[in-house]
Amino acid sequence: MDPHQAPQGEMVSPKNHGCLGLLLVFAISLAGCASTPAAPRSEPGASRSEDLGEITYHDDNLDGFVDLEMHDFGCCDRNWALVDSDFDGIFDLRVQWGYSLTTEPIERPVPHFVAISPKSSGWMR
Questions:
Q1: Most buried among 9, 33, 99, 116, by the most CB within 10 A?
Q2: Could you give phi then psi for residue 58, rounded to 5 degrees?
Q3: Is the residue at 86 inside a domain?
């Protein structure tokens, strides 16, 4: 009889298979993480309109092209905007209002054939 095998009919000690139990717990925890879908972020490219808030487009220099795309959620700490600060037809800033004003550089073309709000955003003034 092999000294590493338990005799027939005897219980195997849990300490002999501690690694197997640890591996099982690890696999179950990873499976739980993998099965949970990631929460959608409120950013450009999100697929659901409620993730983007109420979108308005503004033309601050009155050239007929969008200069600011405002995403309004009805509360100031979730609102964000895409800004074309140099009026070249490409958004170059993503601005978020929260406890502080945060900006991050982006590069995304401004949308065409959208309804532009008749009032200025006030961002560039």
A1: 116
A2: -130, 145
A3: yes
Q: Mind listing the pLDDT tens digit for each residue in 93-116?
A: 999 987 888 999 999 999 999 999
Q: Is the pTM of this model over 0.70?
A: no
Find the helix or strand (DSSP H, E) in which 3 lies. Answer: none
Nearest in space to 115 (alpha carbons), one of 63, 66, 50: 66
Contact in structure between 80 and 96 (CB atoms under 8 Å): yes
> Residue 21: enclosing H or E segment and its boundaries?
helix 18-34
Q: Total structural domains in the chain?
A: 1
* Residue 68 is assigned to a structural domain of this protein: yes
Edge to edge, the sheet with strand 80-83 lists 54-58, 68-72, 80-83, 90-97, 101-109
C-alpha R_g of the chain: 28
Residue 76 included in any domain: yes
86 lies in which domain range? 51-109
